[in-house]
Structure formats: structure tokens, C-alpha cells
Design goal:
By secondary structure, the protein is an alpha+beta fold. Helices cover about 30% and strands about 10% of the residues. Strands 1-2 form a two-stranded antiparallel ribbon.
Length: about 120
Amino acid sequence: MPYKPLVPCRHPGCRALIKPGELYCEKHKGLYLDEVNRPSAASRGYGKRWQKASRAFLHQHTLCERCLKEGKYVKATVVDHIRPHRGDPKLFWDESNWQALCKPCHDRKTFTEDVRPEYKF
């Protein structure tokens, strides 16, 4: 009976081979959010109140802050928490912890934080 070939781990730069149907090797499984078990956006605080507040913030801050630092003028579409709130409602609603970003900049920043989280004690 023929076997399906092993596939590479999806973590960037990882050369480990894994069974088809799996996404990551044992070393990288814990680094990524499990979308199946992740709570809904509303239950994590991103409900109607957040949508209204983020729209108002983006109305005042129309350009991506990271792109501006590089001299590019790109429309901001996402309100990002500068320091990840990790469920802390005070940090979540602190507008001084918000920044306007375009989607590509937000995705890059969030990916980096998810792979290499920093915890302050």
C-alpha cells in the first residue's frame, strides 16, 4: 500500500518533516494559536463597544504609524494594542496603548509577538 510523503513543518525556516494533515512539528506546535479552540472575538473583548471605539480612533488617526516612520503614506485599517493586553481590561481600553496600523504591518507585529511573547513581571 502506498504511503503519502511527509510534508515540511509550516514554521518559517523549519526543515522538520511531519505527517500529512499536520501543520507543525512537535517543536513548533505550541507557538501558534489554535484557531479551533480560540474564543470568539466578542468574548475576548472585541464586540460592538470595541468596534465603535476603534472606528472613532481610525477616523482621527488615518495613516499607518509604522509606514509613516518609513516615509510611506498608507491608510490605517486596524487599531493595534502596542503592549498586548493579554485579557487585562484596563490595558485593553487604554487609548495611549493604541496605534493605527495597516493590515500588513499589524499582521507582522502580531506574528512576531505570538512567536516571541514578552512577559513583564
